[in-house]
Specification:
This protein is mainly alpha-helical. The chain has helices spanning about 1-70, 75-100, 105-130, 135-160, 165-180.
Length: about 180
């Protein structure tokens, strides 16, 4: 009993510290984006980001619960979940593209946003597999790397691609953060 209690406490502590540090970095990033990209730039990015994140939550919540509740750690289970992922997120990617296109953010941003949604949902699903195995360090690593890369890309693109529209620079930062954290 002591070993499982200790495992729970260790994982809880790592999850808590991971969420706290990721949340603080994300929160501190808001004034940074506003400073370099302006309130309008941040607002436009925030709307696109929210579309992507809501679709990730909408499409992935039930898969995440399935992994947490029924994971038997077999290759067959992982394959089944991945098939369900593709069945769910391919149409959601098309929906994401449609929504972003209707928002008139531009074709390139709609494409990048849709790919980010597809990739972000895969990253989220991977994190849940680690959580189901009580591997808090891996889960923390994915999230921390993603947020850190996002901040670094926001700064890098601000100073190197200043002629590129701000929304494109921010959505590219968002995309690259998920790509590298995967």
């Amino acid at each position: 009993m002591f070993k499982s209690h200790q495992l729970f406490i260790n994982n809880f502590t790592i999850y808590f510290l991971g969420l706290l540090s990721s949340g603080l970095i994300s929160f501190i990033t808001i004034p940074l984006i506003v400073k370099y990209y302006g309130v309008e730039g941040y607002g436009n990015f925030s709307i696109v980001q929210n579309v992507v994140l809501v679709l990730i939550s909408f499409g992935g919540g039930w898969l995440n619960q399935c992994v947490l509740r029924f994971n038997n750690y077999s290759t067959h289970f992982k394959f089944d979940i991945f098939q369900l992922y593709l069945i769910t997120f391919f149409p959601l990617s098309i929906l994401c593209f449609g929504i972003l296109t209707l928002m008139k953010v531009g074709f390139v941003i709609s494409i990048i946003g849709s790919i980010t949604m597809f990739l972000g949902s895969l990253v989220a699903l991977s994190i849940v597999f680690y959580q189901s195995k009580f591997n808090a360090r891996k889960s923390f690593y994915f999230d921390f790397v993603r947020i850190l890369v996002f901040v670094l890309m926001v700064l890098t693109f601000h100073f190197t691609l200043s002629e590129t529209p701000s929304l494109l620079r921010l959505i590219l930062s968002f995309f690259i953060s998920y790509l590298i954290s995967f």
